[in-house]
Amino acid sequence: MSKIIVTGGAGFIGSHLVDALVEQNHDVIVIDNFSTGSKKNLEKSRGKVKILKTSLLIEKILKRIPKVLNGTDYIFHLAALPRIERSINDPIGTHQANVEGTIVALELARQLGVKKFLFVSSSSVYGIQKRLPLFESLLPNPQNTYAYQKLMGEYYSKIYNQMYNLEVIIFRLFNVYGPRMFSKGSYKLVFTKWLEQIRSKQPLTIYGKGDQTRDFTSITDVVRGLILGMTTELKNQYEILNLGGGQQKSIREMAKLFKNNVQFLPPRPYEEKFKEADINKAKKLLNWKPSTSIDEGIKKLLNYYTIYSTTR
Ligand SMILES: NC(=O)c1ccc[n+]([C@@H]2O[C@H](COP(=O)([O-])OP(=O)(O)OC[C@H]3O[C@@H](n4cnc5c(N)ncnc54)[C@H](O)[C@@H]3O)[C@@H](O)[C@H]2O)c1
């Protein structure tokens, strides 16, 4: 059994990770300010996790590190204010959560002397590239403030590895989907928006022609990959790993799986057009590969939301 901090543990991805770690009998502590996350996400693990409701700010966490965090073995750092649009509308607030929040988490890791720091970054750091699939050693080319903030978090993680020998894994996630995608606030993931539109009998909105591609990854595959990152002993003390479905799908193709009318809106600026993950490195180092096909994953998601909508 290990003692594990999950920052952002009340959010969509974080709460699934927490449930899986609790199931494996680890001692889990969530650090979250509940800005976009919610207690409801942690219902399954209620009573089995400790929750520190606080922002990742120097004065809240580092001035006096809460005793309950002593002896932590691993930190998964997921706390962030994600979504491109939000970072464009609120560059300073998102910088504080995404960049300052990351250096606070790293400082916490250093001061607690943890074994590994696992930072959840984003495929957005690749931005526009000349070729696909996207592999980890490509030079990042971020196209918006969110992507740049995640990249700064990566660079801080790298320098903490170099300066303090902190073992670091950076995971670059590609469009994750699954239950609990409904986070608080007005900035939504594409499938969340579509599910809400289906519920209110509206057409699914698509920006541009819908020929832009993304690499959709199921939450169960992502969580499995994150935990393998924690448990696998790697040769190098610093690695970047893509976790993606390994297949690009256009937004128009995806909308067909939701079986609804669509409405086209003007394209959104500052977004890369194509994304596809090269997942060979995670396959080789973690013995990980996605096991949920996109058709099967969307079918499960639609089922889940039919039940969710009729019970709330
Ligand atoms: N969802 C995706 O498709 C996707 C893709 C790539 C990367 N990511 C990354 O995965 C992580 C989790 O994303 P998500 O989709 O679960 O988002 P989410 O908004 O559901 O979760 C983020 C969590 O962080 C918390 N939080 C925000 N600011 C905080 C702060 N300053 N201090 C403490 N807690 C704070 C929120 O309350 C929330 O619970 C993020 O780092 C995001 O950048 C997500």
Main attributes of the structure:
binds nicotinamide-adenine-dinucleotide; Rossmann fold; 312 residues; single chain; 13 strands; globular; two-stranded parallel ribbon; alpha/beta; 10 helices
In short, what is this structure?
The protein is α/β, with parallel strands linked by helices. The chain is built from 10 helices and 13 strands.
Commentary on this structure:
With 312 residues, this protein is α/β, with parallel strands linked by helices. It has a domain at 3-176 and 217-244 and 276-291: NAD(P)-binding Rossmann-like Domain (Rossmann fold). Helices cover 38% and strands 18% of the residues. It has 10 helices and 13 strands. The chain has helices at residues 12-23, 58-62, 84-89, 91-112, 145-164, 190-199, 219-231, 251-257, 280-286, 294-311; strands spanning 3-7, 27-32, 49-53, 74-77, 116-122, 168-173, 176-177, 204-207, 213-214, 217-218, 238-243, 249-250, 262-265. A 7-stranded parallel beta sheet has the order 3-2-1-4-5-6-11, sandwiched between helices. A two-stranded parallel ribbon has the order 7-10. Helix 1 (12-23) crosses helix 7 (219-231) and helix 4 packs parallel to helix 5. The longest helix is centred in the N-terminal third of the chain and has 22 residues, at 91-112. The chain is globular, with a radius of gyration of 19 Å. It binds nicotinamide-adenine-dinucleotide. Nicotinamide-adenine-dinucleotide (NAD) binds at residues 7-8, 10-14, 31-37, 55-56, 78-82, 97, 101, 120, 122, 150, 173, 175-176, 183, 189.
